[in-house]
Amino acid sequence: MKGIHIPSEANRAAWFFLAPAITLIFIFFFLPVAAAMLLSLTDFDLYGIASPLNTRFVGLRNYSRLLQTPDFWLALRNTFYFAFVGGPLTIAVSLGAALLLSSKLVRFKGFFRTIYFTPFVTTLVAVAIVWRYLYHTRYGFFNYGLSLIGIQPIDWLGDPNWAMPAIILMAVWKSFGYNMLIFIAGLQAIPEELYDAAAIDGAGPFRRFFNITLPMLSPTLVFVTVITMIGYFQLFAEPYVMTQGGPLRSTTSVVLLMYEEGFRWWRMGYAAAIAFVLFIVILLATLVQFRLQKERVT
Amino acid sequence: MKSAGIVAATCAALAACSPASANDDATLRLWAMGREGEVVSELIPAFERDNPGVKVQVQQIPWSAAHEKLLTAFVGNATPDIAMLGNTWVPEFEALDALEPLDQRVAASSQVVRDDYFPGIWNTNVVDGATYGIPWYVDTRVIFYRTDLLAKAGYDKMPETWEEWRTAMTRIKAGMTARQYPLLIPITEWPPPVILGLQAGSTLLKENGTRGAFSDPEFRKGFDFYVSLFRDGLAPALSGSEISNLYQEFERGNIAMYISGPWQIGEFTNRLPPALQDKWMTAPLPGIDGPGASLAGGASLALFKRSKNKDAAWKLMEYLSRPEIQLEFYKLTGDLPARRATWLDPTLSGNRYAQAFRDQLDRAMPTPQVPEWEQIATKVFEHGERAVRGRASAETTLAALDRDVDRILEKRRWIIARLAEASQ
Lengths: 298, 424
Fold this sequence. Notes:
Chain A is mainly α. Chain A contains 13 helices and no strands. The two termini of chain A are 30 Å apart. By secondary structure, chain B is an alpha/beta fold. In chain B, the strands form five sheets. In chain B, strands 2-1-3-14-6-15 form a six-stranded mixed β-sheet. In chain B, strands 8-11-7-12 form a four-stranded mixed β-sheet. In chain B, strand 4 and strand 5 (130-131) form a beta hairpin. In chain B, helix 11 (191-199) packs across helix 12 and helix 20 runs antiparallel to helix 21 (394-408).
């Protein structure tokens, strides 16, 4: 055992300083998570509220039942659809906006940065209500725009095939500003000399982007991707406000399903099981991303 | 608190308040949803005048959040004294043991006269023989139809039996284009198949509400009729959200009949152009051999067990149930009154569109009084849609529906079995 020897007193002091944080995390995070874990092994529901005797320990039955429910697989599919189409799209749009705003040709950068960032700080529910108007089949702005170029009106939120794209579009608009700021910060950290040297070597703008900007941005990209995907896997407020999961459950996400089971039908044990399955899905997706990104960074 | 203090001080100063009314000093909390919650405050001042010392606090809650808020209030020990409950919610709150049984109070009351209520509606408030709510307003579903289109097919009024109804629709269809339909029943609504099942004699659930009865011949008969309406091209297989403007479709004659509730009277009156106003009417639903049943809907007033002012709260419920207050409430909201006495008033008896509802209410039937009903109802249309779209036969659809319903009711079976064991 080589290495630095830490005297045990210092160890004690460290524990002392960590104690408040650990206590808080334990009480407000680990304890509830453990309670939810236990809850997911019971059939606690409306009857259980009336009398504790009405709750049974059911082991893993909530989980096995969940995996046999078509609604769950549909919700999982919708969530993946949203995350794997909306996520990359958001990142691409944010990166594009960041590149534009970092360009030396653009003026009033502060102004545009503020404008692009505004959607992110606006309340989602308010935004969703306004977008519901924009998507209105007859009076909405989008269909008005389409009608100008001769395209038939689209029933954005009423057609099972269009509802999810409509929600993705709104989510991209809503959240690209935040990622954009992080990308701008990342871009500013790239030394100018690299570009100068590349330009002297005769590299065009595309070569410079793919061989300098992108590799240098890798750490930022990893962070942005992971944070965005974790957020997108938890899709809830957009469909809750705009479509209530419809039409034909085409916008029901896993979190929305959990909300319905938990707070609409009050089947808390089952809802807790959904929460844990979602946790595992997000954990796996994040690990895969780290793995993929690590290969690219090194 | 302040106003209660002032009332108490005034009582002391005037020395005119009887001890009894001093005991009545109370602040009642009443929760009501939507439009009803907005306007009920207008009825309160008269009540407060008649009952000095009693203050009523009305809290208006949006429908979309109401159910959740009530449950949370129950868990958090913060239920109001009285709440308006959609009458499918009554069994649920009864299962929580949150509601006060009202039978004794009703029996002793001169204001709440059980016989003056529509029996089907009243029964939505009865769980295992005890009454937990007083109907506040009622609704049921009837047919809204184009009189001119029906006349063109040779009928001067809506037919009363299934077979005549079908013949009438077939004749109307003969005069229509391929994309016009005699009947519109959105496939994302559970009431149409449930009503037809009830008409055919189904109890929907069996064995004390612990198992689905959807595969049984009674429901099957109603369901077959339901599915045939789509298969024969008499109704389009459209979901609710696919119909962008019902009134326009109705106006253009793209649909001739539509099954809906009393709220549509106002909408049809306001949204259809003047030229069409004498060309639509309402009619009770046809049944197998004559006028058929429909759903008992509406909302009730329920008294919570944890209320500390039950006597005062009951007075308010009695007050809101008086026929003349019911009439005022109807004028404020357009909600159909629960009291037959109120229906005798010219305001209602003179409304020709309301007559079908009055007639139908005598044949309104409650859905099963189990807390799981709303969840079961969503399953009915989810499965029904598959049969309508031809993805599965009626037999496999209903078997699958029963399986789902039995699974939903598993907990209820267990509880009933446990209670039965305990009582032995």
